[in-house]
Each structure stands twice: as C-alpha cells, then as structure tokens.
Amino acid sequence: NTLIVQVRRYGQVYYDSPLEPPADDPELPTGFDPLAYLLEQAHTGDPPLEVYAWVPVLPVWNQDTPPSSPGHVFNRHPEWITQDIDGNRRSYGEYFLDPGHPGVLTYTVSLLLDLVHRYPLDGLLLDGLYYPYEGSSIGSPIWGYNPTSVQRFRARYGGSGDPSPNDPLWTAWRREELTALLRQVYLRCTEARPRLRLAVAAVAWGDSPDSAGGWENSSAYGRLLQDWRAWTEEGLVDLIAPMNYDREYRADQRSWYDHWLDWEAGHTYRRRLLVLQAAYLNYPEHTLAQLGRVPDRALGLSAYIPSNLYADPEGNSRYIQPPRQPWSYSPEAEWWLWRSLALPYGYTDPANGVFTATSPLFPSPVPPPALEWKDAPTRGHAVGLALGPGLFPMTLPTTITLSGPEVRTLRSDGSGFWGAVDLPPGNYTAEVEGADPRAQRMTRTVRAGQVTWFLPYSIYLPLLWRR
Asked: Which pLDDT score is estimated for 123?
C-alpha cells in the first residue's frame, strides 16, 4: 500500500529543486521529474498507493573529487562538514554535514519544507540522521568536531580546546544537536502539512538493548549519538523505522532480529513502529519468515531492496558469503519477493537447483494504517524563536519554560527555534531565559491539530533562510 522511494543521494536530488542540483545519473533524462511522475501514477492507481520520500539527510558526498555542480552543498559550504577529533572529514568514504552548525540546521529544514510544500507526499522517511562512526566506540564517539559546533559548546559551557570524545557534557551536546534538528523538522513539516507522516530510519545493530546492557550501551545511543528512543518518547516522529538488517540463516542474527522486535514494540510510546527488513541479505523464504513475525508487534513493515540476495547485479551479495554456493546474480530474482508477498509462489535456487514454494503474506489488499494523532488529533504543538537583544535569534541554547495545562522545560536550538510536541489544548505562557524584554514572556492558545507560534506581536514572523 506504500512506496518508499529515494529522492536524494549525496546532496543531489531526483525531483525539481531550487536548492540542490539534479542527480548526476546518466539514466535521468534532462527535464524529467521522477518524483512528480511517480506521485501521479501512484495516487491515481487502483487501488492508489501512498508515497513516502526517502531522504538521506546528513551524508552529502562520497567521492575523491568535489561534485561537478557549483551549487552542490559540499562546494557551497565546506565549513558545514563534520570532522573527527583529529580533523579527518571522511568516514568510510562519506562526508557528513554536522548538525551542530546552525547553517546545517536552517538549510536542512528549508530543503525538507520545500519538498513537502511542492509535492503531495504522504510521508517522509529520513535516513542518515546520525553522526559518522568510523573509529568511534560506544561511550567514545569521535565525530561531531566541526569547529563551529565546538565554539558554540565552549561559549555555552566554558573551557577551551577540543573536548574529549568521552566528555559526558560534550557527548550530550552532540546528541541534543541532532535531536534539535529533528524537532524542528517535525514541527515545521507538521505546520506545513498537518497529516504528513514523518518516519526516521533508526540504527538497530547487534543484539537488542535488553540483551546488551541497556539502551545507553547500544550503538545508536553511544556510538552514533542517535537517541531514537527519546525521539519516540517525545513524539518527534510518527513512525520509528528500525533497520533490522539481520540474516535469518544465521542463528545469532535470527535471535537479534526477534530480540529487537520485542524491544522496539515496547518503546514506541505514543508513536508507531515501521520495521525495515533487509531483503537483500536473505533468501526469499527467509524474508517472508522475518516479515511474518512483524505484524503482531508493529504498525507496518518494509522490505529493503534489492528484493533478495540473488537480485543484486553489482555482486555485493557475494561478499556476505551466503550458505548456498556458488552465488550468482539472477535477473529473474528481481520479482521473486514481490510476487510471493501476494501470491502462492516459489523459486528455483540458482546455487543448488532446489525449488522452494512460498505462501503469501498479503493475499488481499491492505489499506494504509491510520495514525490517530494525525487523522483525528486531540493535542496541539507550540513553537517559537528565542530572540535576544534587538529581536535577533539566539544561536546559543537557552531555556524556555512553557506553563499551562502541562509544564514543559525546553531548549532552543542553533537557530533560536524551540518547540513542544503533543500538548493538551489550552492557554500557555512561554518564558524565555535571556531574551529581549519584548520576547521574554508570551501567552498564546494551543489548539488541537495546530502548531501555535509564540512570538512578540510587535514583529512579523521572519522567513527562514531559503537560499
């Protein structure tokens, strides 16, 4: 019932964008808008399909030479790239933007707002929303040392020089900068398109937290600084999409997969679970087995293409050494999984010639699930800008106390933005520490299903930078 399609790759896009260049793809005809075409076909089908745009956020380049387009973000803003404690800027061949730089914050929000304003998407799936991790370990993450982020941290908390990778305050700073980016994306996109679904691909490596020493000892939290458990608890996503990329034919990974499913189902709070499964690592019957164990625990499931380990023309599946040998690419394998999802099917394994019959998971159409907080909301949201002297946005974090039917203590981000999700309706007063006297205390009414701005009446809401 839903297509999740990649629309951005390393700072280049597969849609018409005023902010980023088109993908440098020889198969992309000049002037053709793949996303617009796909949306038209999907939404007018019988039955219609929903479409989520899959957007890798922070990885923006992966080549030895710079992008050919002068408008590429890597060329325009090299100062936005993150680095490790030794000044290296490339992790496993990739360059990442640093969420601790205010320019990255405003640029990313503008990019995604432009996308959801101009295309009738049903949802977004944000990927790459974590720090690089080459050389990092749990408890000692070495990335996020963009000089501007370090300077802001020192201006806020004092001291000099680069903090230690395992400094708890510095680690919390980097983790919160990433969360602040997501918070602004969620609230601004909800303001623009109230029923838009926002999903985030979440790291789920190794065994589950219950089996590996707790959430703080997970790779997501302790190595990549992606605190997605807190994101679901705060309500900064509609769907958390753990990347449960495990091989069914290995007993250890089969148990990891099941352990993670159980842990994830117990930590969605007011949101829902969308399980991402690695079809490309598994034989078709193993993918069906893994997907079949999901429905009792989650709202939805998605198989990550290629659709099985024989459907990989680039031959990457050879390197995972699947048990049936010799491995070879099989063009007809592209269709095995998709047919077997809805029809009684089967396939002959190219490695051993054995035929395997499969039973369908979805013999009849399944409608997209409802999300009650989107479709029939009973709560609202509050947002504002922390404005310092002269009513200029404050670029260092400050504290906002929001009082009303609930009391929240909030933190502004590098653009001055602050926000609170899922508030009971009613009158709220926001008190902003260190703000201009005209913007220190504001009272507004939060209404169900709406995003309410807390700004001084004497100013007009400034347009966010959209270059």
From this structure: 98
**CB distance 191 to 461 below 8 Å:** no
pTM to 2 decimal places: 0.94
Write the burial class of residue 214 (CB in 10 Å: 0-12 exposed, 13-18 middle, 19+ buried): exposed
> In CATH terms, are 2-358 and 377-454 the same topology?
no
Q: What is the pLDDT of residue 467?
A: 33
Strands 345-348 and 355-358: antiparallel
Determine the Cα–Cα distance for residues 100 and 58; give it in Å rounded to an integer.
12
Residue 464 reports pLDDT greater than 70: no
Domain parsing of the chain, residue ranges: 2-358, 377-454
Q: What is the dihedral of CA 259, 263, 264, 267, to 10 degrees?
A: 180
Q: State the pLDDT at residue 55.
A: 98
- Give residue 223's identity as a one-letter amino acid code: R
Instruction: Determine the CATH number of domain 377-454.
Output: 2.60.40.10
Residues 6+ apart with CB under 8 A from 208: 256, 259, 260, 262, 263
Report, as an integer, the average pLDDT of 297-306.
68
pLDDT above 90 as % of the chain: 83
Architecture of domain 2-358 in this structure: Alpha-Beta Barrel (3.20)
Average pLDDT, integer, range 385-414: 97
**Above 90 in pLDDT, residue 315?**
no
